[in-house]
Amino acid sequence: MHSYPPLNVSVSTPRLELRGATDDLLEELVPLVRAGLADASPPPFDDPMSLYEPDPDVRVQKWLQGIWRGRGSVTSDFWRLNLVVLIDDHPSGIQDIIGTSFDTYGTAVTFSWLSADLRGRGLGREMREAALHLCFEGFGAAEASSEAFLDNIGSNRVSEALGYERNGTTWATRRGQSEQMQRWCITREHWLPARRSDITMTGVEACKQALSQKP
Ligand SMILES: CC(C)(COP(=O)(O)OP(=O)(O)OC[C@H]1O[C@@H](n2cnc3c(N)ncnc32)[C@H](O)[C@@H]1OP(=O)(O)O)[C@@H](O)C(=O)NCCC(=O)NCCS
Known about the structure:
The chain is α+β, with helices and mostly antiparallel strands. The protein has a single domain, classed as Aminopeptidase (3-Layer(aba) Sandwich), CATH 3.40.630. It has 7 helices and 9 strands; from the N terminus they run E-E-H-H-E-E-H-E-H-E-H-E-E-H-E-H. Helix 1 (23-34) runs antiparallel to helix 2. It is globular. The mean pLDDT is 98.
């Protein structure tokens, strides 16, 4: 058990586990980040993004610093919960949940990457379903959203397949180039009929309280 409750969260599905991103788990993801396995083509992330750093050492350094900064600045106004994706107990990706004034609005945004060698087997969808379970069942969210560049087929398809609705478009840069993004959202009402009964969670209540601390 860690003294910082967000590190103790665990969400388990039959195929994978999301677990609070401890430094030990992050260290196990470092080889993937170093090898460029978090990235994709066409570029999937909006700027600024440490994972685009060309030098592998700088990439790892900035990626870790970004996670530590986020961990150190969690308040009820804004938090980012970093969860490591474990497949067969191996750290294989990241599934984040981001809340802005979550206690007021009940809205959360998800972000993820999965090691390139494991994509296309339904694991991205399973990660997102686990994240939605934590958002709605665990944290009592009213709505969850996601966005992806129009040519990010995997991410957009995961949103569509899970019953998200299109929620307009927005613009962002990736590697300095301006590109359009599709926005998606799913309400609690739309998620409930698809709610899975084979997902279990631990450490949620203490984590929720930590994310609710006023600045
Ligand atoms: C987005 C991501 C997590 C999805 O994970 P994944 O394991 O590849 O996704 P899944 O295997 O669950 O596939 C989900 C759906 O997308 C489809 N899909 C995934 N990649 C695809 C591709 N390159 N071309 C066509 N379809 C694709 C699958 O066929 C599946 O569709 P279905 O539900 O109709 O069967 C993963 O691709 C990834 O890490 N990408 C790079 C980082 C990224 O884009 N992050 C999101 C930033 S917004």
